[in-house]
Amino acid sequence: MPLMRGLRRLAAGLAAALLSHACLAAESITLGTDWRAQAEHGGYYQAVATGLYAKAGLEVTIRQGGPQVNHSQLLAAGRLDFSAVPNSFIPLNFAQANVPVVAVAAIFQKDPAVLIAHAGQGNNALEDLRGKKIMISPDTRIGFWRFLKAKYGYSDSQIAPYTFNLAPFLADPAAIQQGLLSSEPFQIERAGKKPVVMLLADAGYASYSSVIMTSRERVEKQPDLVQRFVDASIAGWISYLTGDPSPANTLVKKDNPDMTDDLLAFGRGKLIEHGMITSGDAAAQGVGAMTEARWRAFFDVMAADGLYPKTMDFREAYTTTFIGKPQHRAGGPR
Fold it and tell me: Would you give the distance in Å from CA 49 to the centre of its chain?
């Protein structure tokens, strides 16, 4: 495939460029992820495992997230150097609250959030779910649920509690729940059920995902460090998608012993199949791309829904200084 060949050439070029920093004294960096280690974090682990961060003069420690971990708050408090956050809401929320942290790259052009239903129940599209009970978490209620309310007329009366346990879904043929494209559908299929999987990004949900954030002070005072971290992270993601993912997968399983080779292969496959990282603006501008037009479109929908003041300057949430570099771009068509 032309895109994959281009990405492989890009990965080689990025690795060579990072070598120039290998002789520097390594700077210690801590990255927080948004959930327990899985394929959605594979590129960061690949950059650790294959020495891409080290070649950039960085000693990176990855701290995995989880249901009781709020790495965004830890970043704001200065206890993390970088955080990979799950959606566009978080940078905008910080901007609204005048918290001095900023998005510097968006690894996922498509948010992997999905709604899942059982086959044969008439729940085949998002518009079919209006008025029906849907299991979602408290975080989702202030996340993509706002999009579903604005576009499809969902109401809070539909919300049922979701505890990240698949048992209630598997036991009830009429059940509907949230999930991630690369995770819950695999587990449901292994349990012998056929899921209907609805990717919100394909329905117009414009949130970025795996958004790399850091402090505004670091952006202003240590731009070279930020650039090196972004470059090495992007190189790690390209390597994970186009090369041998086993170095990253070994570290993922070490951090998260519940992760299996089959699930990691399924997740990585879905990331590639749906162009989660290489589609959209990344096709032309390179991995990690963000644009004002995309941020504006997302902000306008949420401001119209009352989540943000319409006069708020959404540009305070991000900077495009560190993305769209020649070394981030791949040859070949989308």
Answer: 20
